[in-house]
Amino acid sequence: NDNPRILAIETSCDETAASVVEGGKNVISTVVASQMDIHRRFGGVVPEVASRHHVENMTTVIEETLVSADMDYTDLDAVAVTAGPGLVGALLVGVNTAKALAYAHNLPLLPIHHIAGHIHAAELVADMQYPALALVVSGGHTSLIYLPEEGAYETIGETRDDAVGEAYDKVARTLKLPYPGGPEIDRLAAEGEVTIDFPRAWLESGSYDFSFSGLKSSVLNAVHNTQQRGDTVIPENVAASFQASVVDVLVERAQRAVSEYEVKQLIVTGGVAANRTLREAMKNSFPSGGNVDLIIPPLSLCTDNAAMIGAAANIAWKKGEWAGYDLNGEPGLAL
Ligand code: KG4
Ligand code: ZN
């Protein structure tokens, strides 16, 4: 069957999500229950609280997904689930639900890597061409991944400290903005000007790795020093200046990797790829009709969702990568 209908489940962080995807391309239904309002009170994701809410919401989210797809389990060919990386307690809810459903309905169980999910979100809006390069920028990850062919992943660069989304969230906290900070900084930056020359963490030449903790500290110091001088901090300008530094680094790394690896496509994905300034900068650097085809999935496919897991699951299906009932959630799962 080249067009399997896969029920995909995602619970690696704070979104309880399910989706039915056909042939890795056609999203028949997709439901995301966000816990954002709950975690906002704590200023970030509290793992225990996340697990508990996944347990509460999981069944309803799956039911809603099937109802809106107008399907029952006899219409499905497989169950796929994010097996890692992520919060262990959160992952376990999805993994155990998927195992139970696969067993009860006699369906193959497909374990999916969360980052492969983010990458193959591209599949839902375009045809992927190889070799490809993916820049995955999220709350937990900042990685440059080379894909020589379908299903093969080579991480050529990653963050040595904070993930870029984490830096957004921490800078937002410094500016007393609510969690998650990314969208808040995005909004503020649009109203501000680049007035502070924050460092661009270039690391040693030739490296594709990233480092954002120095930038985060610079922002903190700049805000602190401004207050010490008795001057007013202009959050819009701090946000714009911070974002300018982040975007510069991300674009430079992508440009260098695209030319060194001579890829056909560049995929920019993950929660931070929802950022308007980053999207614009990438579009300007890789204009359509150029030698590389840029794919940035729409916002709802960039942040955590299960449709992207369904897209990646199609590749696991083709390769026959089924898991046994001993499948476990692995917080540090390698790609
Ligand atoms: O991919 P994602 O939903 O979850 C993870 O797998 O981490 O990414 C969440 C991250 C958060 O750090 C959030 O602040 C950031 O993505 N984010 C943004 C924007 N929207 C979400 N960062 C910058 N600009 C945005 N518009
Ligand atoms: Zn994610």
From TrEMBL:
| Occurrences of domain Gcp-like (ranges) | 27-310
**UniProt KW Zinc keyword:** no
Biological process annotations from GO: tRNA threonylcarbamoyladenosine modification
Kindly name one Pfam family recorded for this protein.
TsaD
The cofactor(s) it depends on are:
Fe(2+)
* InterPro entries registered for this protein in UniProt: ATPase_NBD, Gcp-like_dom, KAE1/TsaD, Peptidase_M22_CS, TsaD
Please state the span of the N-terminal signal peptide per the UniProt entry. Answer: none
Q: Which residues bind Fe cation?
A: 114, 118, 304
Subcellular localization, as worded in the UniProt entry: Cytoplasm
Q: How is the cofactor bound?
A: Binds 1 Fe(2+) ion per subunit.
Family (UniProt):
Belongs to the KAE1 / TsaD family.
**Entry protein name:** tRNA N6-adenosine threonylcarbamoyltransferase
What are the top taxonomic ranks of the organism? Bacteria, Bacillati, Bacillota, Bacilli, Bacillales
